[in-house]
Amino acid sequence: MAGMQLDLGPLKEPIGFIKILEWIFAIFGFATCGGFSGKTALSVKCKNTNDTLLLNATFQYPFRLNQILIVTKETCNQTVETHLVGDFSSSAEFFVAIAVLAFLYCMAALVLYVGYLHIYRDGNRGPMIDFVVTAIFAFLWLVSSSAWGKGLTDLKYSTNPETIIKNANVCKGFAECSSAGVSGMGSLNVSVVFGFLNMILWCGNAWFVYKETSWHAPPEPPKQDPGNVADPQPPQNP
User: Fold this and answer.
1) 226 lies in some domain
2) pTM, two decimal places
3) Would you call 115 exposed, middle or buried from its count of C-beta atoms within 10 A (0-12, 13-18, 19+)?
């Protein structure tokens, strides 16, 4: 039958239960990274006016820091401007894109398992495609999580007020600068953790999907229809 046959049984099996975990962990992955917003700040004491200023810059996903201005032309009556350093959008967007795609694939796979499992298992093509896609996602989670982990390390360095002071021209003679704090990045650390947890889940899921394919257990030969078996011939007398 090609119609939908609702069966929640696969959700109790590893192939379905792990897919639910992957769906949930993918949500946490792109939510903790894509929803982050932080702030870094400097305390600036101008030498020419003796004014003390608090300069801050807000950074958020996708972390194109080189487009964020922290020192304006009006600072200490100088015409210099200073942007934050670095563009970490490629690793962040790659990580979030993999998380969103994994989220969508998990939903599609769960619909297939719950409603169309009879079609999924009626042949070899469905499990084989599922296995290949699952293995690809496991590899992509490894690559994207590693890239984003490196990008996060560089992001922390670039938003550190001490690093900004080294690059700000206003702090090189016009004013005395000191750190005024930077937002914690705990949620971004969690996003990297969820990335590697997703990689582990998808690797484990690949094994259970592999067991559904004919590569693990070749299909049984078709049983012969008893109606097509020829009747035994009676022995002939010599």
Assistant:
1) no
2) 0.81
3) middle
